[in-house]
Each structure stands twice: as C-alpha cells, then as structure tokens.
Known about the structure:
By secondary structure, the protein is mainly α. The protein is about 65% helix and about 0% strand. The protein is built from 15 helices and 2 strands. It is elongated and about 70 Å long.
Amino acid sequence: MDxxxxxxxxxxxxxxxxxxNDVLPLQVIALEAIVDILMVHEMRDEVDGxxxxxxxxxxxxxCVGSTEAELRTTAAEGIAKLIFSRRIPSEPGTLVRLILxxxxxxxxxxxxxxxxxxxFFPAFAASRSSNRLCLEECFMPTxxxxxxxxxxxxxxxxxxxxxxxxLLELTNPHAYSTKRSKATGNDRTLADADSxxxxxxxxxxxxxxxxxxxxxxxxxxxxxxxxxLNGIVLPSKEQAEGNxxxxxxxxxxxxxxxxxxxxxxxxxxxxxxxxxKFYDRLQLLEVQDHNKENEGFADGSDGVTALxxxxxxxxxxxx
Length: 319
C-alpha cells in the first residue's frame, strides 16, 4: 500500500460518517471523495470483516436512491464513471438502480443526471458483448420493480412498455458490429449469446404471462407489458439454427402455449391478439432466411448513433 492509499484508507470511516450524518454540501464533498478514491485505489483493508472497498461501493449505491437531488446525481454519475472505467463490477442490481433513477419522474428536472446517464447507457452497451448480457439480466428485475411499484410511487406514472423498449434498444444485437462468423472460443460464445438476447427476453416475458394466465393474476398481462414484444428483434433463421444456445424452437412452443391459453379465456382477448401477432412473426422465421424487420439495424455504427439519439429524447420514458 503506497502513502496516498494509506491516507485514503485512514480517512474512509470519516467520509462515511460525513455521508451519513453531516449537512448536504459536506455530504456531496464526501461522496465525490469516495468516487475519487475508488477510481484510484483498491482499498483492500477490512473493517469488521468487510473490505473498505465494498463499504464504499455500498454507500455510493445507496445514495442513488436519496431524496436529495444533488446526492442522487453525484452518486449516479460516480457509479456510471466507475463501471465504465471497470473500477467496480457492472452488477445487475447496481445497473437496475441506475435504470430506475434515470426513468423515474422524480429526476425529470435533473438535467445533469439525465444527460450523464443518457451518454453512459449507450456507451456501456456498445463497448462489449458482456455488457449487453449484463443489461439483459437487468431487464426482468426492472420490469418487476415497475409492476410491483405501489400506487403512491412516482414509478407508477411510467409507461412500462417504453422502459422495456429503451432496454431493448440497448440490447439490440443488430445495433452493434458483432463479427460472429470470425469469432472463436470465448468470443464466439459471447457473440452467440449476444445475438439471442431478445429471444431470451421474450421467452421470460411470455413465461410470466403464462404464469398469470394459469394463476388468474394480471401482473404481466397488461397491454403496456405485452407491447414490449413488438420491439423484440428476432434473429434470422440462419442465426437461430447456428447458435450454440438455441432458444428459437422453445420460444415458438411457449408462445403457442401462451396464445392458446389466452384464447381459452374470454377476458384475455387483447392478450391473445398480442401473442398471436408475435407468434406470426416467429412462424415467419421458418420460411425466411432473414427477418426483414431488422434491416435498419444492419450497420453497427448507424445503430449506435440512432440509439444515442433516442436515449437523449428522455420524454419517451414517461407515460
């Protein structure tokens, strides 16, 4: 441990105490100091069995949910910076917090926060396949939070389908130049997984719809959720057949089951229509070499540019 890291380690508890107990201006300074420390130092010393590094990350993450806009913004900016610089892990739980604060109406007037995250998300998604796989893991937890948000929560104001579309745009396999045919080893595995992200998301959504249909609940049978299926980018038949992680046939079968269940319930006409529409798209893959709906995403650079343009239009996330 060098002298500067030793000094930082000595002051960690002081920064955490200020963050918990002091006035807002000093809390913001402490939070900025924590981000700077994590950017530079490893902080492996332990306090009560927990590494100082983990203590700092937990405190930083908790501040994303602060009711104080300045704390919330400083924390979100710091986490985005640390994740993109690969100074802290891009854990799904942390990313879900960033997604929710980005979409939350309470941050609508926080231009600094919205601008920072509108740059971070597309850049993070575009930088490597593993990041898009991490965003895939965030999809259902994010939707679950929105579905279960209490009536008094600002999150209830959101159109869930638009939040879903935002995440689908981030994970759209046709928006990035993944050279699957030339990839080998682990790169090939990541490229395979990357190309089927939307198919796996659709599989999870439809399984949740089936649970609702069989249990006579309606958490995932809302029109706003089923509209997410319209934004699913399906792989070409060639991609689906050559993929080391096939989900195409599973998706076709599970969609057939869901639509038949919906058709058997008189009150599920809208659900049945949405599922039938998606089932028709899946069947089309059986007779086409390529999904014509995806032609606009063939060029990776154009796809990323379009994604950044869409992300900057923050109003799409609110109902």
